[in-house]
Amino acid sequence: MGKYFGTDGFRGEANVKLTVEHAFQVGRYLGWYFGSPHRRANIVIGKDTRRSSYMFEYALSAGLTASGADAYLLHVTTTPSVSYVVRTEDFDCGIMISASHNPYYDNGLKIISGSGKKIEAEVEEQIEKYIDGELGELPLATGEKIGRTVDHQAGRNRYIGHLISLATRSYKNTKVGLDCSNGSSSSIAKSVFDALGAKTYVIHNEPDGTNINRDCGSTHIETLQKFVLEKGLDVGFAYDGDADRCIAVDGEGHVVDGDRILYICGKYFKENGMLSNNTIVTTIMSNLGLYKALDREGIRYEKTAVGDKHVYENMCENGHCLGGEQSGHIIFSKYATTGDGILTSIMIMEVMMNKKRSLAELASEVQIYPQLLRNVRVSDKEAALGNQAVQEAIAAAEQALGDDGRILVRASGTEPVIRVMVEAETDEICAKHVDAVIAVMNVQGLVCA
């Protein structure tokens, strides 16, 4: 990770860690980098519903146009829609203004390359150098070379059409619930499911700038669980703030997370000759139960570091078509270059409709091991992970768990947090080992008050 850019872009509290000056400088550099004396850069911008997203949109547009680039505005839209528009409409790059599942007062800048992937680390490094004054001043455009801002809502509409085109069956007579997290999917998801014939029930689709992710969406799935049961729905889908994640709820109110989604889609793909290399790409956070189920079905798997960026890199390098994370970032490389919550919903619906089975039936084939994850806020992530006493506590847990469980302790890529996760045969065993490691961190003075 760099000084400003982490695993998922430049993220932090708006006007504290990520300021309007930063956004202006990012725009200035990208407009200059992708332009030339004989050609102006074309860069597309999307944003989520946070109050500060509008502020950053204006700052980015100012920086881009000041460097001679044209800024095309998708307005409120999803991260995967920006990726889709960039790669299908020949833009130089895209910028998504969002802090994903974080609270409203945070925000972030995700830079997407012309191929629809997250931008190369080398470009991020150069942006950081420019922000810190190491590259000197960049030339300002003058006269007719000053860039323009262009309304490009049509790009978002084409993305909606793309999603609708992927369904092979009508959703008529199917009752579908959507939790839009008061975020980006509020402007897209319902229109997709309505167009496909579903009887669509929607909650948390009235963003006010401060209610994004607040007690709703994929990180607060209990709200959708209750809604599905109250309304007697067949299935429900919950998204995060920028809609690159999806967590499902079956008709019985049970959560179907990213691991089960990978299994359901992976098995269906294999049955229909669509699973490239007979392999699914997961991260180290996937549940042991997923691996046991894949072993039973004869499906291979690979593990990467946490982050859909790493999943997609592995998929590209090895020609795999399906990968994702337990958190609901699922990548279908035939259709997208990043996690896409609404696309994931459509793929789940495809399996349900074509196999004529409920989501509860499909998900029941995976027996998930109890898993406990706790986030510990620390003053220094590297010091906490490198502490000898902490390492000894982790080793003791590993020895005690043996082959019947595992412990994973890692630093968050976006927050000053250490994540302690244990999987085991019972909740009690999980809690015992998580608590033991956190207790050592407290004794060592590593935990913030």
Description:
By secondary structure, the chain is α/β, with parallel strands linked by helices. The protein contains 15 helices and 19 strands. Helix 5 (153-166) packs across helix 6, helix 8 packs parallel to helix 9 and helix 14 packs antiparallel against helix 15. It starts with a strand and ends in a 6-residue tail after the last helix. The strands form five sheets. The chain has a seven-stranded mixed beta sheet, sandwiched between helices. It has a five-stranded mixed beta sheet with strand order 9-8-10-11-12, with helices on both faces. A three-stranded antiparallel beta sheet has the order 17-19-18.
- Give Rg in angstroms: 22 Å
Strand order of the largest sheet: 1-2-6-5-3-4-7
SSE class: alpha/beta
Low-confidence stretches: none
How much beta, percentage-wise? 15-25%
Fraction in helix: 25-40%
> How many helical elements?
15
Give the topology.
Blueprint: E1 5-6, E2 9-13, H1 20-33, E3 42-47, H2 51-66, E4 70-76, H3 79-88, E5 93-97, E6 106-113, H4 121-131, E7 149-151, H5 153-166, E8 175-179, H6 189-195, E9 199-203, H7 222-231, E10 235-239, E11 246-250, E12 255-256, H8 258-271, E13 279-283, H9 288-297, E14 300-304, H10 308-318, E15 322-324, E16 330-332, H11 341-355, H12 359-363, E17 371-377, H13 381-386, H14 388-401, E18 406-411, E19 417-423, H15 427-443
Helix pairs in contact: 1-2, 3-5, 5-6, 8-9, 8-11, 14-15
